[in-house]
Amino acid sequence: MKTTQLRHLIPAGFLLVVLFSITSCNEGGKTKSHRDAFIDSLLSRMTLEEKIGQMTLLTSGWSQTGPSMNEDYKKMIRNGHCGNVFNALTVEYNRKLQRMAVEETRLGIPLLFGYDVIHGFKTIFPIPLATSCSWDTAMIRQTARLASKEAAAAGVTWTFNPMADISRDPRWGRIAEGAGEDPFLASAIARAKVKGHQGRTLSDPLTLAACVKHMAAYGDPRAGRDYNTVDMSLRRLREVYLPPYQAAVEAGAATVMTAFNDLNGIPATGNKFLLTNILRNEWHFDGMVVTDYTSIPEMVDHGYARDEKHAGELALNAGVDMDMQGSTFHNHLKKSVRQDKISEQQINQAVRRVLGLKYDLGLFEDPYRYLDEQREDTIIHSQQMMDHALASAKESVVLLKNEPHEAGQILPMEQQPASMALIGPLADSRSDMLGTWHAAGTDSLVTTLKEGIEQEFPGTTIHYARGCETTGTDQSGFDQALAAARKSEVIVMAVGENFRQSGEAASRAHINLPGVQLELVKKMVQTGKPLVVVLMAGRPLAIPWIDQNVAAILNAWHLGTRAGDAVADILSGDTNPSGKLTSTFPRTTGQIPIFYSVKNTGRPLDPDNKYTSKYLDVPNDPLYPFGYGLSYTQFEYENLKLNRSEINFKQNLQVSVQVKNTGQYKGEEIVQLYTRDMVGSVTRPVKELKGFRKIALKPGEQKQVEFTLSADDLKLYDPKMNHIAEPGKFKVFVGTSSANVLEESFTLVKP
Ligand code: BGC
């Protein structure tokens, strides 16, 4: 294309940028030095206001017809004061905004388009807590890859995912968005998501830049209340909460998001220890740091900043590069520079990172590369998306209980029952299946459980009754539900939480079945009919009564677009459930925080001794432990073997175990390996996950499962916070859950 032709399309300022990129950018030219030179050249032409514009991220609004932006924001884009937008989607809309930035500003720097693509974009996959229960990192990676593909096809360039926050508190609504309680598993999942979102190269227009959030420890708010203070030892921070963020950073995440919370007295968004010492200096992160939504000005409410200007200075000095929705950088940073509170040098550094991301995404080469209507049409809701929505949903379901009813085994329902009562507020709900953060998820394409069952059980007469809502006290639907139950052979209930009852700002002080749903379950139990309870929720629910009184319980979370098909397939036995819990299910809220990797204490539980660590009114153990989940078949573990009883710091330990399918169905088993450091310079948990494998076994089939451990896997933070392994005795456990394992021991010796 000749330059005269180019001139029709783009402004003079942008031309310089394009020419620079065209003349000096070829396959071999995309070196770091080219990148640096390009960014330096651009930076040298930017005014302070334009630089601050690149450090500003603003949300688009949402009107009836889709995303929209008010005139003030549009003006800010046009005059270079807002270089990044989020919650803007569709090729058509984003092209309009991109045109403003590219063709109407002085330098024509393209916009980034951010969005919360957490578990899908339009086709929705199960909530992250659900997919974590698959322990299948390849599947999770594919979930992120496809979510990116769909969102990128609609003009999005950057996702605010993965959320790598560990949570051990199911009161916190955002437990739904994470990978559960364990740092080892959550790290593997965080890595998989970053790789899935970003693909091989960010410049591929079907990938998104990832954003690890929320740095740090946002998942441990006091009393489980969202946004609340986090106060924890440095040891716990490093052992439990930091590893998943670090894993995501090491997997190449392009960006990191700060957290809303105060951590040990300093809000995360102004926390230099987190954002500079750890993130930059220890982990060598060289990408871009964005704040959470208005978390800069919120530092005034925290009582950490005098005013917004001060808050902006604290954020920048701590290591923040981009202000999400606070407008603090926009309103005050210039003055802060004038007053020497911050230097233009610091601003340049932040802008370099923002421009670097745009460069890596290929936006300087072609600002419209993500904006292609044809791609949008063909990719969104394509068969590939819909198939993966089903596959990922099936793998996420956890069978919590499956005992025979007096009339015989209920699950799987291999013989189609003549009639089935389908009861509950979630049995025919579409939107609730999408769960929290369901992005632009299309409700109308969701298969409800009712639809899934009708499809899967064509010979069965279905008597459907809603019975009650997920909230409120109205029991007027109970009679209809009872009538449906009485005329049916079997009852399937879908109860739990609606999609608003988990997620951000959705903490609950009672994590039982909300509303009058438990009363409805009791009524169904009273009929004496075989009953399956399908729980659909965004968090572990405390369901001790159901556990005691109902023979079959499936935990189906919020499974996304293909929720109904997936659950129906499992009910019929077409799919054998294989999920295992990644967060402990308490018996009651009073046990929270509850997790498997506890310390032994000096007075470990002894039921016959009052003065040991326990409650008077509830057992110590949970209702369902971490790693727990049943199958329609049975697996037997035997022959746990170590290849040696002693290893030194350079040797590997081979651990093997035989797992046999002794039941009647083919199935998948998640084999888990835990260790315990028996004596340390600091006390250690009674179990720590160090490995897992998912294997498929036919009935009667047996496999040997192998793990390798080395001193690196046995590290702890010593009293001086050195990350080292200490010689001594260790136990190793392999089994089907954290509470059901075989055990061996070995010694780590100095070479
Ligand atoms: C959430 C983030 C999210 C952001 C943008 C905030 O309220 O905490 O996780 O990425 O909004 O939507």
Number of helices: 23
Q: Strand count, sense and closure of the main sheet? A: 6 strands, mixed
List ligands, each type once. beta-D-glucopyranose
Unreliable stretches (pLDDT < 50, length at least 5) are 1-29
- The fraction of residues in strands falls at 15-25%
What is the CATH architecture descriptor of the domain at 383-591?
A: 3-Layer(aba) Sandwich
The CATH topology of the domain at 383-591 is given as Rossmann fold
The end-to-end distance, rounded to whole angstroms, is: 67 Å
**Record field, number of beta strands:** 28
CATH evolutionary superfamily of the domain at 383-591: Glycoside hydrolase family 3 C-terminal domain
The helix-and-strand class reads: alpha/beta
Report strand order across the widest sheet.
13-18-17-16-14-15
* Global Rg: 27 Å
On the 0 to 100 scale, the average pLDDT is 95
